[in-house]
């Protein structure tokens, strides 16, 4: 049976996903709080996988918690920390625990994280991981051996509509589509004109696109992201808008901007939904949804 | 092709030589001379440095190519001085250290760290182009190996960390996939970038790798 998230994707509704970040340590209270806060307000909840290459409680553990609490988890799987055996094994475990959505990622590089001397694995890349899932669904593992019980996943990937140069990114996007990606959650987008152009191109493929919305919490943070995070460009007028907010009101302005963008994306039917990333401020996601009229 | 090396940090070297007070030094006339890590000049500087640390240097030599079998002959010529030492400090790449260790019944201590097999683009600038994986894909990659030139060794295109032609890991380094893209485009072969590359076979030849000419 199709997962609840997959049903939402095919229903034609404007799909909303968000994400929670597991803790560094065993104190999972905050993550559980975020799960409880969001699980009934979204169609799927991603759990990040050692985000930014910083060692944390595992994505699969977060997904199990979402499942236990009646939510719909989307398992983020990067190729950075596990070889093809470990990735497949984790998919088997996820399937048996009714986790049926997976987001396939390359994973950030080791040197940007907090274990800089670790060995990056990258035995598979995100395209190969998508194919591995489809192959396992057909009953064979990557070694060509029969599986005693197969898997079934709604599998997706990411795309960066603001990548420069854009063509190599689009070629990889198409390879992901050909390799079985059913949905895409994009890197953060802020320039809606540019995103509309991307969507015009992406619409020719039979996949669902959820626009990435990263909450801007201050003009400084927006400027930092533009200058330092590959594939993220915050237009100057948004930075100015954040800077113009009265003291202590920048976060509210960021919520307003995120809500406005989501409302526009939905109102103009630019894409199939949004993926909201609040990065440490998950408690304001419901406010963003309210601001968006959702 | 050159074996690119750098000298070990002084403290590490001191610690490695801690238990040895009489040292014989071996340099290499090929790669380590070109990279200025183990040529005659560096060997003499090391001799002086170790003497300052209180070591007795029983002798030194720079072998033409430390990794080849002539090393045995070259070392025989200095047998007396070597016998006098209680270790050999080898200022060559790991291949040289290995070779010296085969012929002499004394500890061979590396003075250098072996970094990679590289090419010299301009005088004094070396970079890594091959990981010696055993299954060459340069023909489909416009001559740029993504396994080597991409930080993550990705085979199917750039990651999200690509940034205006540079790598997220180091703004000084080129994004391999931007280079591959540009060159394939120039050659009118961009269709190759669209081709799915399956997972790498890491057992083309299981390690340790050997080859026998027939």
Structure description:
Chain A is of the alpha/beta class. Chain A has helices spanning 4-11, 29-38, 59-68, 84-96, 126-137, 166-178, 192-202, 219-228, 236-243, 250-267, 285-291, and strands spanning 15-20, 44-47, 73-78, 101-105, 154-159, 183-188, 208-214, 273-277. Chain A has an eight-stranded parallel barrel, surrounded by six helices. Chain A is globular and about 60 Å long. Chain A starts with a helix and ends with a helix. Chain B has two domains: 2-114, Response regulator (Rossmann fold, 3-Layer(aba) Sandwich); 129-194, no CATH class. Chain B is built from nine helices and nine strands. In chain B, a hairpin with a 2-residue loop joins β6 (112-122) and β7. Chain B is elongated. The chains are: A alpha/beta (294), B alpha/beta (214). At the A-B interface, α5 and α6 of A face α8 of B.
Query: Which structural class do the helices and strands of chain A define?
Result: alpha/beta
Share of helical residues of chain A: 40-55%
CATH topology of the largest domain in chain B: Rossmann fold
| Major beta sheet, strand line-up of chain B | 3-2-4-5
The number of strands of chain B is: 9
Succession of helices and strands of chain B: EHEHHEHHEHEEEHEEHH
> Ranges of chain B with pLDDT <50 over ≥5 residues?
none
What's the gist of this structure?
The complex is a heterodimer of chains A (294) and B (214). Chain A is of the alpha/beta class and 294 residues long.
Based on the model shown, name its key terms.
heterodimer; A: alpha/beta; TIM Barrel; 11 helices; B: 214 residues; alpha/beta; Rossmann fold; 2 domains; four-stranded parallel beta sheet; 31% helix; 24% strand
List the helices and strands and how they pair.
The complex is a heterodimer of chains A (294) and B (214).
Chain A: H1 4-11, E1 15-20, H2 29-38, E2 44-47, H3 59-68, E3 73-78, H4 84-96, E4 101-105, H5 126-137, E5 154-159, H6 166-178, E6 183-188, H7 192-202, E7 208-214, H8 219-228, H9 236-243, H10 250-267, E8 273-277, H11 285-291
Parallel strand pairs in A: 1-2, 1-8, 2-3, 3-4, 4-5, 5-6, 6-7, 7-8
Helix pairs in contact in A: 4-5, 8-9, 9-10, 10-11
Chain B: E1 2-7, H1 10-16, E2 22-28, H2 31-34, H3 40-52, E3 56-63, H4 71-77, H5 79-84, E4 87-91, H6 94-103, E5 108-110, E6 112-122, E7 125-128, H7 146-149, E8 166-167, E9 170-174, H8 176-186, H9 191-194
Parallel strand pairs in B: 2-3, 2-4, 4-5
Antiparallel strand pairs in B: 1-6, 6-7, 8-9
